[in-house]
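Input (structure):
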């Protein structure tokens, strides 16, 4: 599981404890998944990858270093 994920994300498992969780799917179902963190410090990438516990298929990933911003608008009454 981990070598396949390392290859897919061009990084290495960072030693953070793997987990087992449920992942909500777009069709409304839930998949039992293993979670593993993959990092590549050379290119500044870090992902938490969700791998189907039954098939080994990579279902999703969270990019921890993605450039993102949030604009909050508030209205005072």
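Output (sequence):
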């Amino acid at each position: 599981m981990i070598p396949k994920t390392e290859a897919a994300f061009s990084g290495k498992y960072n030693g953070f404890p793997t987990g087992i969780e449920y992942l909500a799917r777009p069709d409304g179902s839930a998949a039992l998944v293993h979670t593993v963190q993959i990092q590549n410090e050379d290119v500044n990438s870090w992902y938490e990858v969700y791998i189907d516990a039954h098939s080994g298929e990579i279902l999703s990933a969270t990019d921890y270093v993605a450039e993102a911003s949030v604009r909050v608008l508030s209205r005072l009454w």
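Notes: The helical segments are 2-8. The chain has one domain: 2-63.
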